[in-house]
Design goal:
There is one protein chain. The chain is α/β, with parallel strands linked by helices. The chain has three domains: 3-102, Udp-n-acetylmuramoylalanyl-d-glutamate--2,6- Diaminopimelate Ligase, Chain: A, domain 1 (3-Layer(aba) Sandwich); 106-333, 3-Layer(aba) Sandwich (UDP-N-acetylmuramoyl-L-alanine:D-glutamate ligase), CATH 3.40.1190; 341-495, Mur ligase, C-terminal domain (Protein-Tyrosine Phosphatase, Chain A). Helix content is 31%, strand content 24%. It is built from 15 helices and 24 strands. An eleven-stranded mixed beta sheet has the order 9-8-7-10-6-11-12-13-14-15-16, with helices on both faces. α4 (121-134) crosses α9 (304-317) and α14 (442-451) crosses α15. The protein is globular and about 80 Å long. The mean pLDDT is 94.
Length: 496
């Protein structure tokens, strides 16, 4: 592809032309990894938290790159005069626009849905995919758990991938026959311009709470909010939770058409007449949709947050002509890996897996489950190593305060001693009157929870969620809680 076509939508300065007509030069590939450079490639110097691509400019020039895109100064003395060097204000933004052009602007061939918010993104994306597929659409998905492209799935290192990867997925989706895509759009994704280069048809803002504030994330809440709000300036129709306490701040300055959903009478689409539903080893919730649509819904996922997630999905899918029965059927069948995922182990008590891995998420989860009036609420979790110790204190205190029994175990200890992490969690629990046991081995902790389950208990295995590994000493070992639970049940059966 000619260089002039790749940089059509960015502002740039030619620092070095690299030839008489540099914009007419053919680019053979777009790269942001200096180790993959081949002759004729365009290399974008990305300034990251750990590595700065500008430092590798001389290396990529020697390896045959024909174009280098920079945002900071480089040593031009080490760059061959045959290399075209372009300077831009932000190389990440440039990468997004260049990537979109490289793959032929595939977003223009899809109906694009972006979902942002502190909570609910993952579950909502799967609900949307399920409903739209019941309606006859072929749907791609990009999110925290995985990317689904036609019949292929790709693991997800980040909630929102690099812009080049997003555009690559979009092109693959088009070729696989997808007509729409739903994706999680994180605050980091907006901050790092991973979602630049195209306009979402629908942008959804689920909620916002204090999270992701700290080194290498957001300097404060205002910055976190500002990054998430970028979605409402990058979409045609914005769908926003009317009940969020920051609603007025969220929509301030939005350039899109705004619709709302929630429990409030002011919401365009709202949930009414909520009822908790439960049975042997089962928890759910039902409600009635009112406003822009009118029909009853029941979901086999517990809690008020399930109402919000499903209502979000309905607000989106309404625009695709989804009929009530298709929505009802899709939501009744929905299961999201590691998101309040019910695992059938007994008719006497309920066991579930959830990704809650900070105090805020754990509090929300335990508070929700407490509404079902369990005989006992049992919380099994650990905390990650090489992360804030304060998170451990907070999670310990939250579980000690809200659970009847806490089973402290290992999560991803990484390069820390598991016992040291457990001791920090115990420090948090000691601020409460909560009862606890400590079992370092996660499988044995799960065994304890199942063997000591009492009629009417709700047991939550928190923290790992969809993850299928445990990171110890810098090495990822296979570990899926679903597999552990199955093994424990088989071993208990054999021992009888």
């Amino acid at each position: 592809m000619k260089l002039e076509k790749l940089i059509e939508y960015i502002n740039y300065e030619i620092i070095q032309p690299g030839g008489r007509d540099p914009l007419a030069a053919e680019v053979t590939a777009v790269q942001l990894d200096s180790r993959k450079i081949e002759p004729g490639n365009l290399f974008v110097c990305i300034k990251g938290a750990v590595f700065d691509g500008h430092k590798f400019a001389p290396d990529v020039a020697k390896a045959g790159a024909s174009v280098i895109v920079i945002q900071d100064a480089i040593d031009m003395g080490q760059i061959s005069s045959e290399v075209t060097v372009l300077k831009v204000a932000d190389s990440r933004y440039a990468l997004a626009c260049i990537s979109a052009a490289w793959f032929g602007h595939p977003a223009r061939e899809l109906t694009t849905i972006g979902i942002t918010g502190t909570k609910g993104k993952t579950t909502t994306t799967y609900m949307v995919k399920s409903i739209l597929e019941k309606t006859g659409h072929k749907v791609g998905l990009i999110g925290t758990i995985e990317a689904i492209v036609g019949e292929k799935t790709y693991p997800a290192p980040n909630t929102t991938p690099e812009s080049y990867t997003i555009q690559k997925y979009f092109r693959e989706m088009v070729e696989a026959g997808c007509d729409c895509v739903v994706m999680e759009a994180s605050s980091q994704g907006f901050m790092l311009h991973r979602t630049a280069g195209f306009v979402f048809d629908y942008g959804i803002f689920t909620n916002i709470e204090r999270d992701h504030i700290g080194p290498n994330e957001h300097r404060d809440f205002d910055h976190y909010l500002a990054c998430k709000k970028m979605l409402l300036n990058q979409c045609r129709i914005g769908i926003v939770n009317r009940d969020d306490s920051h609603f007025d701040q969220i929509i301030e300055g939005a350039t899109c058409e705004i619709e709302t959903y929630g429990l409030s009478e002011e919401a365009d689409l709202r949930a009414d007449d909520m009822q908790l539903v439960s049975g042997p080893g089962y928890l759910g919730i039902s409600y009635h949709v009112r406003g822009l649509m009118d029909f009853p819904v029941q979901i086999d996922i517990p809690g008020k947050f399930s109402v919000y997630n499903s209502l979000t999905a309905i607000a989106i899918c309404r625009h695709f002509g989804a009929r009530p029965q298709a929505i009802i059927d899709a939501l009744k069948d929905i299961r999201v890996k590691g998101r309040v995922e019910l695992i059938k182990v007994s008719d006497d008590f309920t066991l579930m897996i959830d990704y809650a891995h900070n105090a805020m998420a754990l509090q929300s989860l335990l508070t929700t489950l407490r509404e079902y009036h369990p005989h006992r609420l049992v919380s099994l979790f650990g905390c990650g190593g090489n992360r804030s110790r304060e998170r451990r204190f907070e999670m310990g205190e939250t579980s000690g305060r809200l659970a009847d029994l806490t089973i402290i175990t290992s999560d991803n200890p990484r390069n820390e001693e598991p016992q040291a992490i457990i001791d920090d969690i115990k420090t948090g629990i000691s601020r409460t009157d909560g009862k606890y046991v400590e079992i370092i081995d996660r499988k044995e902790a799960i065994r304890y929870a199942i063997e000591h389950g009492e009629p009417g208990d709700i047991i939550i295995c928190a923290g790992k969620g969809h993850e299928t590994y445990q990171e110890i000493g810098g090495v990822k070992h296979d570990m899926d809680e679903r597999v552990l639970i199955k093994e424990v049940l088989e071993e208990i059966k054999e021992s009888k």
